[in-house]
Write a structure and sequence with these properties.
By secondary structure, this protein is mainly α. Helix 2 runs antiparallel to helix 3 and helix 3 runs antiparallel to helix 4. It starts with a helix and ends in an 8-residue tail after the last helix.
Length: 153
């Protein structure tokens, strides 16, 4: 015995809404976990900043995990709001800054003490991160400032 065609619509809609609600709850839980983890790592980074030889890496970690904390806050918010877009740009900018600082500090260390294989890997990863987050953020800002539609004269 088959169901009338009209009964399929509400059932599928209810299933889709239930799946969407579960996905939203899962995203909010991940955001909460990211906020807690980032806050702990920011506290460790602050502690490292006041230990003599770990000051620079503490600064890099503070900037990076600060961006991760903002990303966790964004995961708990409305993905379609203008505020989320602006905060996403700040997250990308902070992550780009963190990667840029990591690149500079590793490069100075390699030039001062000689480059090792590990430093080369860190330089490559930091450069890719800087290009992805830093340059990508600037490109997104420029694109956001452009008018949406072009008028013809």
């Amino acid at each position: 015995m088959s169901m009338p065609e009209d009964d399929h619509g509400p059932w599928w809609e209810a299933q889709a809404l239930a799946l969407a609600a579960e996905a939203e709850r899962r995203e909010r839980r991940r955001g909460t976990a990211l906020i807690i983890g980032s806050a702990v790592l920011m506290a460790v980074s602050l502690l490292c900043m006041f230990i003599g030889s770990l000051g620079l890496i503490g600064l890099v970690c503070l900037v990076f995990f600060g961006a991760c904390l903002l990303a966790g806050i964004l995961m708990r918010g409305d993905p379609n709001s203008r505020t989320t877009f602006v905060l996403s740009l700040w997250v990308a900018l902070l992550m780009g800054l963190g990667m840029g600082l990591l690149f500079i500090f590793t490069l100075v260390s390699a030039l001062t003490y000689g480059a090792s294989g590990n430093q080369i890997v860190v330089l490559v990863v930091a450069a890719i991160g800087f290009l992805f987050f830093g340059v990508g953020c600037v490109a997104a800002m420029v694109k956001a400032r452009r008018p949406r539609g072009r008028t013809q004269r």
